[in-house]
Amino acid sequence: MKKTDKKDLKNRLVALHEPSSPQAEYFRTIKTNIEMMNIDSKVKSLLVTSPTQDSGKTMISVNLASTYANDGVKTLLIDLDLRRPSLGFAMPIVKSSPGLTGILDSSQNLTPEDVIVQVTDTNLYVLPVGVRPLSPYSILNSAKLGQLIEQLKEIFDMIIIDTPPVMMVKDALLVSKWAEASILIARGGYSNKIDIKKIFEKYARCKCKYTWCYI
Asked: Up-side HSE of residue 81: CA atoms within 13 Å toward CB?
């Protein structure tokens, strides 16, 4: 089974670079499905995860965020895959940012404006990980991260959060309390049906709102 090549991510950003292409239409369909799923209340924060690695979740995250931005929505894409961050491969422009770990480090005295990178001439903004932390769990379970996300909701119209695979670590479930909905990425011929069933059960227990994306 061929795996997603991180270094090839930047070549897969069709919604950002070719918004009128047939491939970009796929992500517009996902956006429409999210809106229909939450027709009674507008979703302003969305978590993206998958059962296991190499399911294409970061590719989906970037293209979906680009789709919202193309529609005039001020959109922030946050990399919360602290164990295996990928946005730097998809968007090299963000590599110089102190990122999430920088703003959460009180000794650096940084603001969102210091760490968030705007993609030139678009409504798309990106908050990368920054320096990979020694203890991802302590960050994801911190009140400070929750406060930051709530602050960012006041600045942006849509926040999309790329998180680690839900079957490998519980990071996505920790973060789900700050997102209004989740997308679970299942890859045809790759994602295990038993894993998918277990994810259904996990999300049911935490009463999280979610939809599926099958690629």
From this structure: 23
Single out the residue of 174, 193, 149, 182 nearest to residue 52, CA to CA.
193
How many residues comprise the chain? 215
For 26-34+41-214, CATH gives 3.40.50.300
pLDDT tens-digit readout, 97-126:
999 999 999 889 999 999 999 998 899 999
Q: Which of 190, 206, 207 is nearest to 57 (CA)?
A: 190
Question: What strands lie across the sheet with 117-118, from one edge to the other?
Answer: 117-118, 124-127, 75-79, 158-162, 45-49, 181-186, 210-214
Phi/psi of residue 100, nearest 5 degrees: -60, -45
Q: How many CA atoms lie within 13 A of 141 on its CB side?
A: 7
How many angstroms separate the CA atoms of 87 and 210, rounded?
23
Dihedral over alpha carbons 73, 158, 97, 11 (to 10 degrees):
-70
Give me Rg for the CA atoms of the chain: 16
The span from the CA of 187 to the CA of 196, in Å, is 11
pLDDT band at 130 (very low <50, low <70, confident <90, very high): very high
How far, in Å, CA of 127 to CA of 211, rounded?
24
Q: Under 8 Å CB-to-CB from 96, ≥6 apart: which residues?
A: none
Please say if the pLDDT value at position 171 is more than 90. Answer: no
Element (H, E) at 158: strand 158-162
Residue type, 145: L
- Residue 200 per-residue DSSP state: H
